[in-house]
Amino acid sequence: MLSCFAGDRAWLTALALCCCGRNPSVWILNYDIMARFRRRTCIILLLFILFICSIMMALKTLRPDRAGFGDPFGLGLLPELQQRTVHLDNKQNSLNRVQGDTVTHVNNLHSISVNTMKASMPPVNQLEEELSSPNYNFHIFYYSWFGNPQFDGKYIHWNHPLLPHWDPKIANNYPKGRHNPPEDIGANFYPELGSYSSKDPSVIEAHMKQMRAASTGVIVLSWYPPGMADENGEPTDDLVPVILDYARKYNLKVTFHIEPYKDRDDRSMYHNVKYIIDKYGGHPAFYRHKTSTGRLLPMFYVYDSYVTIPEIWANLLTVSGSQTIRNTPYDALFIALLVEERHKHDIQRSGFDGMYTYFATNGFSYGSSHHNWASLKAFCDSNNLMFIPSVGPGYIDTSIRPWNNHNTRNRVNGKYYETAFSAALLVRPEIISITSFNEWHEGTQIEKAVPKRTGQVVYLDYKPHKPNVYLELTQKWSEKYRKEQEQWLM
Q: How confident is the model at residue 56 (pLDDT cuts 50, 70, 90)?
């Protein structure tokens, strides 16, 4: 390539004599300078091209579909680019929503969002065609305790306090106070929907659509009796009919996760179950599980069941109990939380029908440790109990428990979640539970999250993947579970 600039020296000299007379040295000197400049330019250009090629090769090795998720399922570079416009629109909608949390334009924004949602919502049969089919053996924990000024007159749960360590010496080393939404919320990730209210119909609709897209089938709704709530929330029982209605629209079912309210015992639980079945049991979205004997029974998850002694539970859950619910119109499947190994014997003595592990922290407790699931499943099989392992995408709660960093479980771009699913499938469970759809405080959510940075906080996100990556992963493993379950039953 450079020979065209060198040429024949003698020919150039003759040309110079003709053009410049007796003194051609000036012309030749200028030409040599230009030739050197051109050679240098060509070399620089070649180096630049090699540098660009190196960059392109490096980027190719970082493509999402090579990030260790197993078989590609739509997370490649091209789908990411195709959805970028939609993602930017969603980010703008999320920003509008956060700004709408201020009381100023509240009513106008609410009416616009609700009317738009109603006008643009496709019919049910079209939804059925567009979304993955529900898997009623995939149960997902759901929380309806969030509030904002637009729908609730104030922020609820997003302004969660920083919880002190029980040891005052340790507690003094960490900050105190509350979060200040909408920019500062009690979570390490930030929702695509902003600091939403669980009462917002458009939010409920979006949540149902996401859970259905993830191919889950049963919503395990966190529940307190009427008039009761957790210490940072407000009563939410009045939301149950709305959640049931939206669940029905998306062909989802709803069961209840009974929380540990004050003075919960056999008598209060009997009244709770009677209330739920009498009030909601006739709804088409109310979940009933078909047992091995062919009975269709409601199912109740009982959080922190180990707090109550087995003798009290036995009054309710055994046939001979003084407050027995067995063989009555309110009989159901009751699933206890297993944390420590000894709890499995207490669960059996109490008369529970099965156990779940809830926590998305592998190694945190005996029940949440994946390597213990095989022995727990064997125990349940030998005692006619259901074993329901709980899988989660990761865990981080340092936004509300700043001293609890040692229990953080990094998501590793989805690998942690897939490892949990793989461990669950190995024990061939009848049901798998997912912690969680939207427990934002503990960072176990699979709901869509977006990058966000404020003056004081930089939130975690799902990059390099899309905001719906954990919905896609759930859908992938739901299909895998279906196929493997067919082989188990052969």
A: low
Structure letter (DSSP) for residue 156: B
Global model pTM greater than 0.85: no
Per-residue model confidence (pLDDT) at position 62: 38
Contacts of 194 (CB under 8 A, 6+ apart): 94, 95, 97, 98, 101, 182
Write out pLDDT tens, residues 395-412. Answer: 999 999 999 999 999 999
The strand pairing partners of 355, in sequence order, are 336, 387
Outline where DSSP puts E strands in 3-42. Answer: none
Residue closest to 358 by CA, chosen among 389, 394, 400: 389
Q: How far is CA 453 from CA 201, 296, 456, 457, in A?
A: 28, 49, 8, 6
Read off the tokens for 5: 């600039």
Which two three-digit tokens encode residue 110? 């609410």
Distance, in Å, from the CA atom of 381 to the CA atom of 210, rounded to the nearest integer, reads: 33
Contact 242, 221 (CB under 8 A): no
Answer whether 255's CB lies under 8 Å from 291's CB. Answer: no
Residue 76 has pLDDT above 50, yes or no: no
**With bands split at pLDDT 50, 70 and 90, how would you rate the model's confidence at 128?**
low
96 within 8 A of 193, measured Cβ to Cβ: no
Asked if pLDDT for residue 71 goes beyond 50, the answer is no
Going by their DSSP bridges, the two strands 390-391 and 138-142 should be labelled as unpaired
Supply the DSSP string of 438-475, one letter for each residue.
Answer: S-GGGT---S-B---B-SS-B-B--TTS-TTHHHHHHH
C-alpha closest to that of 66 among 348, 448, 415: 415
List the alpha helices (DSSP H) in 121-185: 124-130, 149-152, 168-171
Give CA–CA dist 450/87, Å, rounded. 9
Kindly tell me the sign of the dihedral angle through the C-alpha atoms of 73, 75, 77, 82: positive
